[in-house]
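User: Structure please.
Assistant: Input sequence and predicted structure:
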Amino acid sequence: MSKLKALTHQYKNDPNPNLVTYKVAYKGSFIGKEDINIYEGDWRQSLTDNPGLNILKFAVSMAFDIVLKVKDVSGFVQWMKLLKPLFERNAPACLWFIKYIHENKDILEKLLLEHPTSDVRMEFSNLLKTTIDVTAKNEESYFFDQDSYLDFSVEKADNAEFPEVKIYRSSVVRFMQYFFGDLLDTKVRENWRRYDEYFECLKDFTASSFLATSFMIQRQEAILRILEFIMNNKVPFSSSKTKMGQGNFEHPKINQTLDLLCYLVRSTYTSGIDGLNEYPDTSVFQGDGDDHKLSLPPSDVTFLLKKECLNELISLCGEDNSEDTKTTMARLLTHLSWGDNNVSQFFISTMIDYIKKQVSTISNTSSGQPKLPAVLDVAFKIVTAFMKM
């Protein structure tokens, strides 16, 4: 701890410390045991050769033991707050952290999703966001580059060739394939009451650069997958994935997932924008040139324009009943309908039909003067905000 405090003191007082710059050309970033191990080979010599990196490796290992073995929550929180500014100034340490967490998925799951203390999840997510952001910026020059290798572990017929496997060179891209892949489909669903910090990390990465947004929309089908996640196995989606919620009384919060869905949709270039040759105020990349145009995938449009999806989104917004959620929903609808009268009419007619159906249901089940629930108040406000934009 004394060495960490001394290193922190150096960073605060030396305006030009002899450290790795924020943007470095860090090649050869494939996961390997020599990169993952806390110390490899003669660790004493390694510590002498690169003290900053190796002290941070050791500190991370100690921090994880503090919270997972010793169960010292306050000690872990303090340690994370001390480590975050140190990682911000050490790009190789950030790269190592991404690889280490990718290899040790159980630690990621326990600290980001499963731990009952919100401060633990929050401080761990803050460090994770920092390391992803620094590493992604350093890997911009080869963000989508791929290399290939032959998979000798696969059994093959005589005279047949071993299959070729392609892999992204970027360690952040490889990590996000898991983070937004298997982790979302399994552990995030299982821990739906504690997934706030997960979606904060996901939104932070998505909004960090055009490359990151492009990766999420074009390579990961993020719009469709987030919509499917929000729909939670309801029609038109049906799957064997874990259903979130507790009966009809408790459902996953929609504020963060809707905010991410809205950001992804607002990052796209729609046919309406192309027809008007004008961007709405909701657009993320307006005026950034042709190289920043991300077309909205047709398959995404198909599901976004289904009545079942729109009705469910309105219903969930009603349960959340916050001004931010209403505004987010209105901005989502505005971007999709911009310059397209057919889509605008579809949204308005669908919401009016939804309101009529809810009013009819209340009238048939209530005696006296029915009190309109929050979902109808939200629906009215979404329509009003949508028509004003």
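The first strand starts at residue 146 and ends at 150.
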